[in-house]
Amino acid sequence: MPANVETMAYVGEVPWYEQGSRVPPEIGASDMIRAAGLDWIVAKRPARGYPPIKKRGKPDSYARYEIVRCPRAGTKELEVMLGMVTGRYEPLQNVDAFKFFDPIVDQKTATFETAGALGAGERVWVQAKMPEIIQVVRGDHCEKYLLLSNTHSGQGSVIVKFTAVRVVCQNTLMLSLQDGQQAFRVRHSQKMDKRPAEIGDLIAAANAAYAKAAEAFQHLARTQVKSDAVLGEYLNALFPRSPAQERDLTTPPKWGEVKHLFETRQDLQLPGVKGTLWAAYNAVTTFEDYREARDDTPAKRLERVWFGSGADLKVKALDQALKMAA
User: Fold this and answer.
1) What are phi and psi of 42, to 5 degrees?
2) Quick one: pLDDT band at residue 1, thresholds 50, 70, 90?
3) Domain extents for the chain?
4) Is 33 exposed, middle or buried (0-12, 13-18, 19+ CB in 10 A)?
5) Are 196 and 231 in contact (CB under 8 A)?
6) Per-residue pLDDT tens for 119-169?
7) Are 221 and 273 in contact (CB under 8 A)?
8) Residue ranges in the chain assigned as alpha helix (H)
9) Which residue in 156, 175, 144 sits closest to 97, CA to CA?
C-alpha cells in the first residue's frame, strides 16, 4: 500500500489534504470508523525467524512479534505487517481507541471532525472539535481541537494532542500541557471506553491548555516586534545560523521565507496582528504547514505537522515567542 493518507472521512468543508468521504455532523465513533475505512483489525503473532522461548509450566513466548493488519471480510485486501513488538505489547483496535471519544461526543464536549489512516495503517487518528473559540484580536480567532492518534507499529502510545486552528488562514498551532508535555497519554487498554475518570482528566487538561493559550496568544498580539534585530533573534532561536553563515554575515534561507510571510501575508497585516510577535509566530507556523519538502505528499506533510518535526517546531516557536514577550 502506498505511504499516503490512505483513507479518511471528514465533516463540513473539504480539508486541505483534499481527500476522504464527507459524513454528517454529530456522527458517532463506529460510523466514523466505517466512513473513514478504518473498520479493520490488527493481530499480534510470533515473528517469523524467532524461535520460541520455552519456560517450564508456561506457554511458549517469543522474543519478537509482528503486528499485522488483517484483510476485511469480502475484500481482496492483503495482509500487511505494520510493526515489530515485544511480547508485552498489546494491540489496541481502532474501534476501542475511537470509543474513548464517544462519551466526550455524547456530552457535546466535542464533535468528530476528521478521521483517517496514514500509510498502511501504522498510525490512525480522529480529530474532534471543541465548542467556543479563542478570540485573539477582532477578526482573528482560533478554533479548538482534540487530536487522538493510535499507532499499530509499536512506536508510540495512544495520545491526545491539543491543536488550535487559526481560522483566517487555517494554519495549525500545537499546544503543550501545563507540565510541558506535548500530548495527553492514554493507557493502552482494551477498556478505554469505560474510563470516565481519565476522560475527566483529559477535559480538564484541555480546558487548562486552551485557557493558557488564549492568554498567551493575546499577550503576543500586544507585543510589537520593534526591529529587524528582534525578529532575527527569534528566527535564530528556531533556525540557527551555521558558523559559516555567522562568519559571512548571511542567514538560512528559511529566515527569508518567514520574513516574507511576516511582512506581506494578508492575514498577518490585520489590525492588531501586523508587526507583533503573534504575527511572527504565525509566520513560522504557516511556513511549516505549507512549505514544500523533498518527496512531500499530503500524508508526509500531515505526519510532519501533527506528529513529527513540524509539531515540535510549532511548540518551540510558541515557547520562544513567549520568552521574548516576557
Assistant:
1) -115, 155
2) very low
3) 5-217, 221-325
4) buried
5) no
6) 888 999 999 999 999 999 999 999 999 999 999 988 777 899 999 999 998
7) yes
8) 29-35, 94-98, 102-106, 196-221, 228-238, 243-248, 253-264, 277-290, 298-307, 309-325
9) 156
> What number of H helices and E strands is found in the chain?
10, 13
Q: What percent of the chain has pLDDT over 70?
A: 91
Given pLDDT bands bounded at 50, 70 and 90, which one contains residue 29? confident
Q: In whole angstroms, what is the distance from residue 180 CA to residue 198 CA?
A: 19
A 10 A CB-CB count for 86 gives: 11
Classify burial at 294, counting beta carbons within 10 Å of its beta carbon; exposed 0-12, middle 13-18, buried 19 or more: exposed
Q: How far apart are CA 154 and CA 105, in angstroms?
A: 28
Task: Report in angstroms the alpha-carbon separations of 70 from 2, 47, 77, 106, 259.
Answer: 17, 15, 8, 30, 48
Q: Which amino acid type is present at position 49?
A: G
Put residue 76 in one of left, alpha, beta given phi > 0 → left and psi -120 to 50 → alpha: alpha
239 or 37: which leads in pLDDT: 239
pLDDT of residue 3: 39
Place of cell 461526543: 105
Checking if the pLDDT of 225 tops 60, the result is: yes
Longest dimension (CA), the chain: 74
Compute the mean pLDDT over every residue in the chain, rounded to the nearest whole number. Answer: 87
Q: H or E element: which one contains 40? A: none
User: What global pTM score does this model have?
Assistant: 0.88
CB distance 156 to 303 below 8 Å:
no
